[in-house]
Task: inverse folding
């Protein structure tokens, strides 16, 4: 979602740009789009992402920097892996692709790799990709690999440009290829990482579905599970390419992304709700860091903190590993005594009790000496408080019996 | 919920070109042929996917009869004692000429309904049952039976609920088997770590049918295409929400199943909801939004009150089979958790509604797990997401909602707090993905929204 | 998470200190555990970087791979680690108990007396966290198929015999660690989580130092503190160079550490090695010596930075052990530890018998057996913990699966029939709300012999049960077998003896539904040497 490619800026887009201030826009790539699924209830994150705010810089300025980083060893290993994949002329992809597409093994085919003009602008690259895709799809017997194609996805009315690792086109259909550096060991891989890769690939599949529908002059189907029967339409199973076992040799595994595709659809459809979030903001509010000429932020921290606080967050401990502002929001949640600091699941047991203080107060009534269980209900406590009081009584009794207190 | 691979094609029923009875008969005839008269070289297993109320039990009875008539001795494997007792009861009533052995554990006595038949013998040792035409027991009990026994043919009932390791333990007892089950219901589960086997075709914690099909690719599941239980108001929704790739339809048409209240509505929201359900087959009795613990006293009270009024208003269930009064035994309450069921039972008892089957006809109150395979005229469901501050994988599991929303012949009344749609919208979708494990469809979020969208057309607010 | 542990977490938030979740210690602690702090090289599955290990808190030993991409050095590392760990493991195989039993003769069917060996004790490895266990599993997987000089075809790079042996032990121990209640391989975060609640979430508790910060003020924090402030400090405080003041517990290292400390040190090491290679080529003895010194110094520098990265975690693990030793051991620990001793003894015997290493993947029968074992042990663990610890029983009471109270009345009654048996009614006053319908069978906790009862009625505040067994064979109950008025009793709705698991076929009898018998050797890539 790069503003430079927009024709006319709508009022919402103008407001989003104000929120970002002078900083360059962080483009919404497939990884960012997929990450929307991590905490769709968080208005703060939705707004910051929609405005393309650099959350890493924001977290730095707020005093609780994001703990994310990648080791140089991991980066190097990843690059080695990708180059090895290409050095083999992508031969490694052919066998699993044949299996996936049900093509007989003896069918010999050479792989065409058209030039996708990587130095052009995103819009032009998108044009080039769709032309190459159409051409490749026109000959069902051909095998074509589109290396670093460029796709366009409409997100809340504006285009985002996405760059999958590769697409393989055969039989008039294309298959998304996602290259990752985590290993597949004895046929299985870290499910959390495969899940993240599947969500990212689903964003590409969605973009390809939109493209195929556009090319055929049709509306994209509303059915979340429907397979498109259009030239160049994407397969709903993608190929995940990873290092095999302990080696640096690639292995390709099919991953069905239909479920992730339906998730992505609904997350993107919600992006339009950004307008509602904007409407609730105070006039003139911005997340601008007001950098000086040397690039150092000058915006007073308290002011920035207030601006961030103006948009409600839905903090959960998972945020620490998925969002740059995780530490900041945790500090806020702790400060407010919110029960979410202990985990999302905790809320299910505490019902309408939202703070540590309120929960402990309810528990305290059960631990009071002389409070018989029958009395708890008469105290007029709701079920959550009553259960907590009961739990507190059991806990006190057990600790005493165990000689701990 | 898990779905098997490619199905035996049946283009006619998909198009709905045949009347439902005929479509179902053809499917059943095909299955019986495959089971009783297998072609030479045919696979050793026959798998039948049966959506809710599609005549699975009838099929099992017919297959048992034909196999016994053909001179086979038959073993039947079901998953729980109550399923076994149900099956014994049904088989004994439908086939009085057949001798039936009920094999049970020494510390678990069979239910009286199973024992009331002259042709049923119950023993805790299989050696005492070898002369019976059919011997029925749970998978857990069959696992202890030694191998030198006379069965060639088995029927495995509720096969999708059976775990792969249970099948591994009993498969040595038979040569051929008919596996029947509903792929849309709850998957088997375990409380210990099984990640290391995820993706293996024989993952011991997966469904028996999944393993069977992975190792026997020649088996193509048959499918029963018509639900005789679900009314025309429910079958299309349940089919599209929970069986997107294997649609089925209702055996009855619109208006063929009705509920007629004998006592007029008292103007309360509960009565309005009952009228709505009587009219349309669905009602959503909605309480104001509030975050609560599982045993939300107001929601529990609303469920109990609904049941009380259902019985007080002397409804008559009119169907293609005639009309009958809606009595306690024909009503069930479904919940997600056991403590919710206990709370509803206590509240019903307080309202004087019979809930103890030992004392006579009673309303069934149970969790989705225990309601699997059961059928009632009217169900009252406490929505698994009602009042929750967050949705968990447990609450989103499609099988749970599918079971709860597909037990009824006439109507289903769902009790829930407002706010479920928002809760679903805010639910993080970051499910892990195991390589090599077939993705489960449909997605819990999509299925929940589909059901909710339908229910919201029949909303009655309770303030 | 249960409501009781949530409550403990809430209390921990209030006090900013860890709160007890157990009144006794539920895991066996060895007198001689070996602590391992493994570090992994980033970007590659299970690639070792270093390990700090030992049985003496004051004398940890560091093994490291100076250049993580160098396969020879990696093999040397594994050989050194194996030479350290395998003797520790094997030392427990020497002292045995002899147990007499009987076995059925497969031919005659007669029962024949046999004497079996059971190792008197078993080893215990303690790592910082669950990721440490996973790393050991990867090391096990990558080394157990290694060929040695003793193999018929030793291959190009034969490993010392102990390397595949280490792989087999690590595989066995990491597999055993999946069995609930087992204690041969433990993670400190797991141990602490069972016994204390912190005022943060489970996710944050995976960070060992952050978790420890709820028990003890982290070293270096001024002013000293425990709780959220201290936890955040160890999670995120960085020095002037941008390095974490308290390095993470591994196996992954901090990316900043990799970038600013480790990568330059490895580079210097590589450069020194290059100098040495050149010097050796020049055949100049003095130059060679100087170059060897350079390599030695570069290696020492690497050892210094890696020790600094692992040592704080080493101390955290020992601190944790200290905390745990303060808890009295639970009554059933010897029973469960015996299971570990059997597991150890059986693996020892398999190795001695020359059996091949564990296959890459379990076959259908093995997987089913392991699952059955885990479920059985889980059930046993839940029962034993509830009996050993009033706090664990409180969880069950809160869940409606047990009730405790005072006997306020005993009504002597007898069964009908020719020889009446005692069937007394107990009226129990209780504040608990068991999910107990009349007729439901319940079990009396701590009864010796076991005692069953059935619910007669369950009203708010009062449950009436009828005792059904455990009162002797006579008309009148054995003295002491019926609780007296005024005594406290606990009844559970769950059985107090776990059920046996049903028998499974032998792998060679795997049925058609599960693909038939497994093909021998299919999942054992003998001699595989897969690192590149």
Result:
């Amino acid at each position: 979602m790069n503003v430079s490619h927009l024709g006319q800026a709508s009022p919402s887009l103008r407001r989003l740009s104000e929120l970002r201030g002078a900083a360059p826009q962080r483009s919404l790539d497939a990884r960012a789009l997929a990450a929307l699924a991590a905490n769709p209830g968080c208005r703060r994150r939705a707004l910051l992402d929609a405005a393309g705010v650099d959350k890493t810089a924001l977290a730095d300025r707020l005093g609780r920097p994001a703990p994310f980083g990648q080791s140089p060893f991991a980066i190097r290993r990843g690059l080695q892996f990708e180059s090895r994949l290409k050095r083999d002329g992508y031969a490694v992809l052919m066998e699993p692709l044949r299996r996936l597409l049900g093509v007989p093994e003896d069918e010999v085919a050479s792989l065409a790799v058209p030039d996708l003009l990587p130095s052009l602008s995103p819009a032009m690259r998108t044009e080039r990709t769709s032309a190459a895709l159409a051409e490749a799809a026109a000959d069902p017997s051909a095998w074509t690999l589109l290396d670093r194609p460029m796709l366009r996805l409409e997100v809340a009315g504006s285009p985002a440009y996405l760059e999958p690792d590769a697409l393989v086109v055969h039989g008039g259909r294309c298959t998304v290829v996602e290259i990752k550096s985590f290993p597949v060991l004895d046929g299985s891989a870290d499910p959390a990482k495969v899940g993240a890769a599947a969500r990212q690939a689903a964003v590409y599949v969605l973009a390809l579905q939109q493209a195929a529908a556009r090319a055929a002059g049709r509306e994209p189907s509303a059915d979340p599970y429907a397979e498109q029967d259009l030239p160049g339409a994407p397969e709903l199973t993608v190929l995940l390419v990873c290092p095999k076992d302990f080696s640096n040799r690639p292995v390709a595994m099919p991953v069905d992304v239909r479920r992730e595709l339906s998730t992505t659809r609904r997350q993107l459809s919600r992006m339009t709700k950004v307008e509602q979030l904007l409407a609730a903001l105070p006039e003139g509010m911005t997340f601008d860091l007001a950098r000086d000429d040397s690039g150092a932020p000058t915006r007073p921290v308290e002011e920035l903190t207030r601006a961030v606080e103006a948009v409600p967050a839905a903090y959960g401990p998972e945020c620490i590993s998925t969002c740059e502002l995780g530490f900041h929001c945790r500090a806020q949640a702790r400060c407010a005594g919110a029960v979410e600091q202990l985990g999302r699941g905790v809320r299910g047991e505490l019902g309408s009790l939202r703070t540590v203080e309120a929960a402990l107060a309810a528990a305290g009534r059960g631990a009071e000496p002389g409070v018989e269980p029958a009395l708890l209900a008469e105290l007029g406590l709701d079920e959550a408080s009553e259960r907590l009081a009961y739990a507190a009584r059991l806990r006190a009794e057990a600790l005493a019996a165990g000689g701990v207190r | 919920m898990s779905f098997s691979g490619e199905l035996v094609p049946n283009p006619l029923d998909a198009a709905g070109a045949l009347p439902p009875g005929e479509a179902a008969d053809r499917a059943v005839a095909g299955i019986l042929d495959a089971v009783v008269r297998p072609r030479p070289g045919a696979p050793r297993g026959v798998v039948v996917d049966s959506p809710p109320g599609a005549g699975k039990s009838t099929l099992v009875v017919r297959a048992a009869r034909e196999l016994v008539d053909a001179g086979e001795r038959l073993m039947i494997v079901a998953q729980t004692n109550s399923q076994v007792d149900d099956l014994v009861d049904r088989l004994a009533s439908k086939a009085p000429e057949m001798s039936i052995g009920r094999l049970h554990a020494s510390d678990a006595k069979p239910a009286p309904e199973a024992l009331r038949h002259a042709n049923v013998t119950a023993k805790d040792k299989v050696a005492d049952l070898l002369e019976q035409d059919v011997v029925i027991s749970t998978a857990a009990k069959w696992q202890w039976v030694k191998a030198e026994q006379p069965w060639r043919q088995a029927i495995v009932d509720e096969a999708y609920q059976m775990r792969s390791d249970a099948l591994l333990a009993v498969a040595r007892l038979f040569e051929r088997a008919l596996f029947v089950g509903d792929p849309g219901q709850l998957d088997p589960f375990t409380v210990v770590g099984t990640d290391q086997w995820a993706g293996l075709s024989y993952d011991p914690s997966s469904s028996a049918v999944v393993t069977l099909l992975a190792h026997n690719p020649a088996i193509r599941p048959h499918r029963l295409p018509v639900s005789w239980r679900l009314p025309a108001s429910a079958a299309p929704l349940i089919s599209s929400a929970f069986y997107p790739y294997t649609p089925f339809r209702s055996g009855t048409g619109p208006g063929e199943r009705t509920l007629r209240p004998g006592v007029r509505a008292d103007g309360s929201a509960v009565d309005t909801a009952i009228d709505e359900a009587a009219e349309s087959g669905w009602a959503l009795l909605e309480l104001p939004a509030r975050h609560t613990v599982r045993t939300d006293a107001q929601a529990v009270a609303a469920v109990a009150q609904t049941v009380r009024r259902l019985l007080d208003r002397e409804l008559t269930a009119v169907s293609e089979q005639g009309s009958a009064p809606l009595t306690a035994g024909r009503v069930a309450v479904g919940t997600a958790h056991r403590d919710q069921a206990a709370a509803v039972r206590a509240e019903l008892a307080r309202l004087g509604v019979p809930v103890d089957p030992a004392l006579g006809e009673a309303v069934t109150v149970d969790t989705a797990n225990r309601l699997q395979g059961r059928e009632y005229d009217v169900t009252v469901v406490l929505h698994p997401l009602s009042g929750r501050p967050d949705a968990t994988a447990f609450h989103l599991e499609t099988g749970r909602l599918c079971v709860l929303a597909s037990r009824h012949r006439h109507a289903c009344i769902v009790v829930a707090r407002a706010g479920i749609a928002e809760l679903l919208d805010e639910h993080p979708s970051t499910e892990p993905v195991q390589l090599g494990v077939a993705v489960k469809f449909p997605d819990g979020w999509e299925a929940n929204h589909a059901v909710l969208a339908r229910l919201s057309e029949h909303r009655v607010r309770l303030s | 998470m249960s409501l009781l542990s949530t409550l403990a977490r809430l209390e921990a938030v209030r006090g900013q200190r860890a709160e007890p979740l157990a009144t006794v210690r539920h895991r066996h602690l060895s007198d001689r555990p070996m602590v391992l702090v493994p570090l992994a090289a980033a970007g590659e599955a299970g690639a070792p970087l270093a390990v700090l290990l030992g049985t003496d808190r004051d004398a940890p030993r560091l093994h490291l791979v100076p250049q993580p991409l160098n396969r020879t050095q990696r093999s040397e590392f594994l050989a050194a680690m194996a030479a350290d760990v395998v003797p520790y493991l094997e030392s427990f195989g020497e002292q045995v108990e002899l147990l007499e039993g009987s076995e059925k003769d497969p031919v005659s069917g007669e029962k024949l007396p046999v004497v079996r060996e059971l190792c008197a004790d078993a080893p215990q490895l303690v790592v910082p966290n669950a990721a440490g266990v996973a790393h050991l599993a990867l090391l096990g997987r990558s080394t157990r198929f290694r060929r040695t000089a003793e193999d018929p075809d030793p291959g190009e790079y034969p490993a010392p015999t102990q390397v595949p042996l280490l792989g087999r032990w690590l595989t066995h121990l990491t597999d055993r660690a999946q069995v609930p209640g087992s204690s041969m391989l433990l993670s400190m975060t797991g141990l602490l989580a069972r016994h204390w609640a912190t005022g943060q979430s489970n996710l944050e508790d995976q960070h060992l130092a952050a978790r420890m910060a709820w028990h003890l003020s982290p070293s270096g924090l001024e002013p000293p503190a425990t709780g959220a402030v201290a936890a955040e400090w160890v999670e995120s405080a960085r020095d002037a160079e941008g390095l974490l003041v308290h390095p993470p517990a591994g196996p992954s290292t901090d990316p900043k550490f990799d970038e600013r400390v480790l990568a330059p040190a490895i580079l210097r090491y590589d450069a020194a090695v290059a100098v040495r290679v050149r010097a050796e080529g020049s055949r100049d003895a003095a130059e060679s010596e100087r170059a060897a010194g350079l390599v030695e110094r570069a290696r020492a520098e690497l050892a210094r930075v890696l020790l600094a990265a692992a040592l704080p975690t080493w101390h955290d693990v020992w601190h944790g052990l200290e905390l745990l030793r303060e808890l009295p051991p639970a009554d059933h620990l010897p029973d469960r530890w015996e299971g570990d001793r059997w597991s150890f003894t059986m693996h020892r015997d398999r190795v001695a018998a020359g059996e091949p290493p564990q296959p890459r993947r379990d076959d259908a029968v093995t997987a089913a057996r392991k699952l059955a074992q885990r479920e059985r042990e889980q059930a046993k663990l839940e029962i034993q913990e509830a009996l050993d610890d009033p706090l664990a029983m409180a969880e069950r009471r809160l869940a409606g699966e047990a009730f405790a109270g005072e006997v306020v009345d005993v009504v002597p009654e007898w069964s009908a029939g020719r020889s009446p048996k005692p069937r007394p009614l107990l009226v129990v006053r209780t504040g608990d709300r068991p999910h107990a319908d009349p007729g439901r069978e319940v079990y009396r906790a701590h009864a010796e012999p076991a005692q069953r009862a059935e619910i007669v009625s369950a009203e708010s505040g009062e449950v009436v049960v009828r005792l059904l067994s455990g009162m002797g064979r006579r008309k009148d109950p054995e003295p002491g077998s019926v609780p007296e008025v005024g005594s406290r009793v606990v009844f559970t709705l769950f059985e107090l003896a776990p059920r046996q698991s049903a028998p499974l076929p032998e792998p060679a009898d795997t049925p058609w539904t599960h693909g038939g018998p497994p093909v021998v050797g299919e999942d054992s890539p003998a001699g595989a040497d897969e690192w590149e």
